Amino acid sequence: MTRILVADDHPLFREALSGALEPYFENAQIIQAESLDDALAKLNEFDGVQLVLLDLNMPGGEYFNGLITLREQYPNIPVGVVSGSDTVEVVAQVMSLGAQGFIPKVSQTREIAQAIVDIIGGKKWLPDGMEEELEKVDDELKVLLQRFRELTPKQIQVLSYLRAGLMNKQIAHEMNVTEATIKAHISAILRKLEINTRTQAVLLMDKLQLS
């Protein structure tokens, strides 16, 4: 039995994708999750999940936090990102962070089915022409991607609050930690990204087109 987890906060998309895939995978079990926490719970509940189809911007998964968390906690389960944000910067970041494939939400069902077969079979999958586009990514962006990859999920969460304009005290309240902990996270972020200020961190996120 092929067991696939579809993690997306839009129930209509989950249902449509699940229904569309059934003819291509006999006896497949399509498990659905509506948030990162739900996805982690389902992975803990169901053994033998062979693939996670992950939306980038579902609750808890923003700023690539979902992808990073899944790769950390379930490194042996391949992840195929399914997203409407398909710029070369986003795809480069997704692949840099360990996704096995990137599937645009506008893809035809047969393309998604082929992507699933390839990814479960251990191959990487990208839309036609995307691999050539990734080769054109400039060296500066590649360096930024490598630095960003070193951040932990908590540090990325802090970055998202920084970009939203929150101060340290407000971030500490949102994350239910001390202000000192937030200061430590920010210091680590600046060190890993090799920058000096919070403003530079926000500009970097803009450059990577994190939304």
Automatic annotation (TrEMBL):
One of its GO terms (molecular function) is DNA binding. The modification 4-aspartylphosphate is found at residue 55. One of its GO terms (biological process) is regulation of DNA-templated transcription. Residues 3-120 form the Response regulatory domain. InterPro entries: CheY-like_superfamily (IPR011006), EvgA-like (IPR051015), NreC/VraR/RcsB-like_REC (IPR058245), Sig_transdc_resp-reg_C-effctor (IPR016032), Sig_transdc_resp-reg_receiver (IPR001789), Tscrpt_reg_LuxR_C (IPR000792). Residues 144-209 form the HTH luxR-type domain. The keyword GTP-binding does not apply. The keyword DNA repair does not apply. PROSITE patterns: HTH_LUXR_1, HTH_LUXR_2, RESPONSE_REGULATORY. Keywords: DNA-binding, Phosphoprotein. This is LuxR family transcriptional regulator. It comes from Alteromonas marina. The lineage of its organism: Bacteria, Pseudomonadati, Pseudomonadota, Gammaproteobacteria, Alteromonadales.
